[in-house]
Amino acid sequence: MVSRVIPVDPFDLVIFGGTGDLARRKILPGLYRRFLAGQMPEEARVIGAARSEMSDDDYRAMIGQSIREFVARGKQDEEAIGKFLARVHYVAIDATGEAGWKALKAATRKDVIQVVYFSVAPSLFGPLAERLHQKGIACATCRIVVEKPFGRDLATARALNGTLAEHFHENQIYRIDHYLGKETVQNLMAVRFGNMLFEPLWNAQYVDHIQITAAETVGVGGRGSYYDKSGAMRDMVQNHLMQLLCLIAMEPPSQFEPDAVRDEKLKVIRALDPVAPEEIVRGQYQPNGAAPGYRQDVQNAESLTESFIAMRLHVSNWRWKGTPFYLRTGKKLKARASEIAVVFKDPPHSIFGQQEGRRGNVLAIKLQPNEGMTLRVTIKEPGPGGMRLVEVPLDMSFAEALGPNGTDIPDAYERLVMDVVRGNQTLFMRDDEVEAAWAWADPVIAGWEERGDRPCAYEPGSAGPEEAQILMHRDGRRWREIRE
Ligand code: BG6
Q1: Whose CA is nearest to atom 14 of ligand 1?
Q2: Does the global pTM surpass 0.90?
Q3: Which atom of ligand 1 has the smallest separation from the CA of 179?
Q4: Contact 118, 89 (CB under 8 A)
Q5: Which of ligand 1's atoms lies nearest the C-alpha of 331?
Q6: The predicted structure's pLDDT at residue 377
Q7: What's the whole-number average pLDDT of the chain?
C-alpha cells in the first residue's frame, strides 16, 4: 500500500510559545516529520516567537535537539534535519509589550498562507489577537490556532470566543483538540460511515451500552498548579472525551465537510442530560510508599480536585434513548490505554440454551497504544461433544493490516497543523461546540462544589476507586479491563 502525500502550498507558520514544551515536543518534531515525508514545500517557513533573546542559530540548535529527542531514531537523518532547520527562524517578542513586533512583521510574508499558533497561556490569546492586527501582521486570510484550555467554564469560553471574534472570522480560528487528530479517532468515522455493517445496529435497539476510557499511567507531573484548578473533568472530559462521545453518537453528516460534521456533533452535546450526583465517581490517587500522592504532587494538602472521574451519561434523542454512555479517565492508573467499546445486546433468544459466560458482541476501538479494532464474536468451540460456544476476538491491528503505513501513523499534532495549512476545519472545534460542552459541564462541576463532595481514594496502578466499579455493577455491567 503506498501512502499518498499531498503537498501543501507555501506557508509561514508563526509559533508563539516557540520555546515552550508543546512546540519542542510536538509541533516542531511533527513538522520535521512532514518535511521528511515531502509535504512541506521549499518555500515554507517556521518562525518561533518567544520572550527570550536568541539568534536563529540558537533556536535551530534547540529545535535540532528536540528532533533528536522526540522523533523516532529511524527518522533521524542529519542531512534532512539540517535542511529542515534552514527553514526555521526565531523572533524574540514581548506578547504584551512593544519589543519584537517590527521584526516579526519583517519576517512574515503576505503572499503565502499565514498561520499563527497560540501555544501560550490563555490569558495571552486576546492580547495576541489584538496585536497581530494592530501591528499590521495578520493578513485577511491569516489562520490562528488556539490551544486548550479554551476557557474554564461557559462564561470564560464565551468571553474568549468574543475576543477572538473581534479580530478573526470563525473560519480563521482553529481550536485544537488533539484527540481529533488521532488516527483511530478518524477511523471511527470511516468505520461508521464507510461500511454498511455497523450503522444499522448503531442505536439503542441493538447497543446495550458504550464505554469510553482514557487511562494514563503518569501523574500530574510538573503541571500541578494548572491541573489542581482543572481536574479530570475540565482537563479531559469536557474536551477530549466529549469529542469521542460526539463521534460515536452523532448522526451521519451529509458530507465529510467541516460544518456538516460539527453541526452533528453539536446536536449530540445539546442532547446530553444533566448528570445526577449518583452517576459520578471522582477519585484522587494516593501516595505509594515514597511516591507522592495527588495532593503532594499539586502541593495542596486540602485539594478536592479529581485526578480520576467516571460517569454515566445519557443522550436524549431517538437513536440513543435508553443506552448509557460510561466515561472514565484518570492519572496513575494501571496502564496507558484509551479505547471506545460498543457493547451490543445479547441475541433476543438463545437457541443453544443457557450457557455459562456468554456475553454480547463488543466492538472495541483502540485509540492508543497499538491502534486497532477488535470485534468479539461468539463461535462454536471446536471438537465433538455438542454445541459449546466460545467468544473469540476478530482482531485487527492497523500495524498488521496496513503494513508500514499502519505503523508509521502521524502524530495528532502533525496532522492537525497540516490541516490548518490546508484550511480544513473538520477536526477543529467550532465556537458553539465549545460553549455547548461547557454549558453541559458547568452545572455538573457546580453540583459537586456546592455539595462539597470529596473525591474517593484510589491506589496508583489500579483501575481507579472501587466506587467506579460499583457504578457499573449497580447497572449489572462491568468495565472492560484497562490494559495496553
Ligand atoms: C492533555 C491533558 O490535553 O491530554 C493531559 O491536558 C493529558 O493532562 C493529555 O495527559 C493526554 O493526551 P494523550 O494524547 O497522551 O492521550
Answers
A1: 179
A2: yes
A3: 14
A4: no
A5: 10
A6: 86
A7: 93
The pLDDT of 46-59, averaged and rounded, is 97
Residue owning the nearest CA to atom 4 of ligand 1: 236
Q: Which residue has the higher pLDDT, 274 or 411?
A: 274
Distance CA 358, CA 160 (A): 51
CA 305/CA 232 separation, integer angstroms: 8
Closest protein CA for atom 10 of ligand 1: 216
Residues pairing with 116 in the sheet: 14, 144
Please confirm, yes or no, whether 240 is among the known catalytic residues.
yes
Q: How far is the CA of 379 from the centre of ligand 1 (A)?
A: 38
> Does ligand 1 have an atom closer than 6 angstroms to the CB of 339?
no
Residue 147 CB–ligand 1 contact under 6 Å: no
CB of 216 sitting under 6 A from ligand 1: yes
145-176 residue pLDDT tens: 999 889 999 999 999 999 999 999 999 999 99
**Cα 341 to averaged position of ligand 1 atoms, centre (Å):** 20
pLDDT in tens, 8-45: 999 999 999 999 999 999 999 999 999 999 999 989 99
The per-residue pLDDT for range 361-379, each reduced to its tens digit, is: 999 999 988 888 899 888 8
CB of 228 within 6 A of ligand 1: the answer is no
Q: Which atom of ligand 1 lies closest to the CA of 227?
A: 8
Considering 240, 314, 349, 473, which one is annotated as catalytic?
240
Which of 216, 244, 285, when mutated, tests ligand 1's pocket best, judged by the most ligand atoms within 8 Å of its CB?
Answer: 216
pLDDT at residue number 295: 97
Nearest to 313 by CA among 274, 340, 362, 282: 274
Distance CA 325, CA 246 (A): 11
